[in-house]
Design a protein that fits this description.
about 55% helix; Glutathione-S-Trfase_C_sf; globular; 2 domains; single chain; Thioredoxin-like_sf; Mito_Protein_Transport_Metaxin
Length: about 250
């Protein structure tokens, strides 16, 4: 996919996961980067990479921007803001940036891992993970790697702390996270006010990954029950013209 804008003559490349779970961008971190680049009208090409171990930090997304390789979406955001003379965070006060940063941390360092748990730890949902991530692998790796990867994710969640909790306890964590986001939005169209900001890309992408999963995980109906979240997520995607789901 090529997004045509009018930046410079160097073709920038954003490396993302292949589609899955009814999503074009299987990772909220990939989706938020696509939103940011589109918002900034920077030319870029989307390149699917099935094996994140081939990425510089063994995770996706990563990108080649003006000939420089960047990993981690937060680092990419900071670089994008620098090379566009502050356009990514244009007009935000110090207080708004503080609030946006706090909700980005909530979304990416807590809510995200609840999304991972809802996909990877549930026996009735893991076959969708298996098909999305491991189907292209040759035999016998196709038989071996999914189990190894699932054990690694389970271990990571244990180290994070969330993996020690029951599903019902994780649901309660999720409700509090999602309610906090809803309360922060309130009657505003976006997280920080009337105008969309880079922090909406982070929060909106995470919510898209939760709401637009096909089929639902246990996290999806919880998000739909919370006021504002469905409308807010749709508004963010519609405003930028970039959607997480395959059929917008």
């Amino acid at each position: 996919m090529l997004v045509k804008t009018n930046w410079d003559n160097i073709m920038n490349k954003l490396y993302i996961f292949s589609p899955g779970f009814g999503l074009r961008n299987i990772s909220p971190f990939c989706l938020k980067m696509e939103m940011a680049l589109t918002y900034l009208t920077i030319d870029f090409e989307l390149i699917e990479l099935n094996d994140p171990r081939k990425a510089p930090k063994a995770k996706l997304p990563y990108m080649e921007l003006n000939g420089e390789t960047l990993s981690d979406s937060e680092i990419m955001f900071e670089q994008l803001n620098a090379i566009t003379d502050g356009k990514l965070y244009n007009g935000l006060t110090a207080e708004q940036k503080a609030i946006g940063t706090a909700f980005s941390r909530l979304a990416e360092d807590h809510l995200y891992w609840l999304l991972v748990a809802s996909r990877w730890l549930e026996d009735d949902w893991f076959p969708h993970v298996d098909a999305a991530f491991f189907a292209p692998m040759p035999i016998p790796l196709r038989w071996i790697i999914p189990s190894i990867a699932r054990k690694q994710v389970r271990k990571t969640l244990q180290l994070h702390g969330l993996g020690a909790h029951s599903r019902e306890e994780m649901k309660a964590f999720a409700r509090r996270d999602l309610q906090a986001i809803s309360d922060a939005i309130g009657s505003k169209p976006f997280l920080l006010g009337n105008e969309i900001s880079a922090f909406d890309f982070t929060v909106g992408s995470m919510l898209s990954g939760i709401l637009d999963n096909k089929p639902d995980t246990w996290l999806s109906p919880i998000a739909r029950e919370i006021d504002h979240l469905v409308d807010y997520t749709e508004r963010v995607q519609q405003t930028i013209g970039v959607y997480g789901r395959i059929d917008p």
